[in-house]
Amino acid sequence: MAEVHALDDYYLAITLLITIAYQLFFFSIAFTLKFDKLTDFAGGTNFVVLAIITLAFSGHHNARQIVDSLFIMIWGARLSGFLLFRIIKTGKDDRFDDKRDKFFSFLGFWVFQMIWVWTVSLPVTVLNSPNVTKYRQPNFGTGRDIAGVILFVIGFLMESVSDIQKYMFRSKPENKGKVCDVGLFVWTRHPNYFGEIIIQFSIFMIAVSPAAYGYAHGGAYSALYASILGPFFLTLLLMFVSGLPLQERPGAKKRYESGNHWESYLIYTKRTSILIPFPPQLYVHMPTILKRTIFLEFPLYVFDPAKHADQSKVRDREAEEGGASSGNG
């Protein structure tokens, strides 16, 4: 199959147009029918579509392209499959309760999803592009390739296993409201996020090999290294936008105000690393300065009841509990 120079030599325009069309198609269904079950499915499967199309267009199917394309397909398919299964079980997505009926607010989420898919796909998109495939590549199996494969397997297992562990934990009625502190969650509060970050950097590590080993030159060399924007974007997203900031302080605030296993949650956060897996027996004795720097538990994640809690809700809850105790007495 001859190379297809579709709009540009790095497939940046064609993948952007495909992503926009793909997301708008699912957005139209989700908004018209008020149907939440397609949202995350559309995001995950979009990665698969881009990888298949760029690999097919490239006309050069060396092992490195195939492996890296398969990796992002496997990751995207697993992610979309799991999220689809979860939303079918839960019925609706609470994230959209204030957006579902507002056209532009709801569209804003889908535009952000377009940016996420297109950016995170960059390493595979560029690797499959004509301006890179025109150069010879080192045979697959270099130290960088092997390290990338190992990291992908570790990250994929962490993300997959932790998703299953949390789902199984929360599926048991006796665990309602409890802190999920089983399996991988003993070592890190967010093993799925850590696994996802590792996955994306492993895909980049493999994709950049033609430049790292001196085979690709000029614009291709720069484009391959610039595709690190993909894993960096995902990392920043998880750490500062839609991941940890929405999980940590808001989650702690909700538990504190409702009194929902607050004490056990506080103990859990003190002994469990926020992102990087680490033995809890050591982490609990770690100086705060090291937790804030090396282990990335930045102040924006930390909940201070005096500063961040709605004390009126706490007083109301305590009053209700006091009244209930008096009545029982």
Automatic annotation (TrEMBL):
<feature type="transmembrane region" description="Helical">
    <location>
        <begin position="197"/>
        <end position="216"/>
    </location>
</feature>
<keyword id="KW-1133">Transmembrane helix</keyword>
<dbReference type="Pfam" id="PF06966">
    <property type="entry name" value="DUF1295"/>
</dbReference>
<feature type="transmembrane region" description="Helical">
    <location>
        <begin position="222"/>
        <end position="246"/>
    </location>
</feature>
<keyword id="KW-0472">Membrane</keyword>
<feature type="transmembrane region" description="Helical">
    <location>
        <begin position="66"/>
        <end position="85"/>
    </location>
</feature>
<dbReference type="InterPro" id="IPR010721">
    <property type="entry name" value="UstE-like"/>
</dbReference>
<protein>
    <recommendedName>
        <fullName>Steroid 5-alpha reductase C-terminal domain-containing protein</fullName>
    </recommendedName>
</protein>
<feature type="transmembrane region" description="Helical">
    <location>
        <begin position="106"/>
        <end position="126"/>
    </location>
</feature>
<feature type="transmembrane region" description="Helical">
    <location>
        <begin position="12"/>
        <end position="33"/>
    </location>
</feature>
<feature type="compositionally biased region" description="Basic and acidic residues">
    <location>
        <begin position="310"/>
        <end position="320"/>
    </location>
</feature>
<feature type="transmembrane region" description="Helical">
    <location>
        <begin position="40"/>
        <end position="60"/>
    </location>
</feature>
<feature type="transmembrane region" description="Helical">
    <location>
        <begin position="146"/>
        <end position="164"/>
    </location>
</feature>
<feature type="region of interest" description="Disordered">
    <location>
        <begin position="310"/>
        <end position="329"/>
    </location>
</feature>
<keyword id="KW-0812">Transmembrane</keyword>
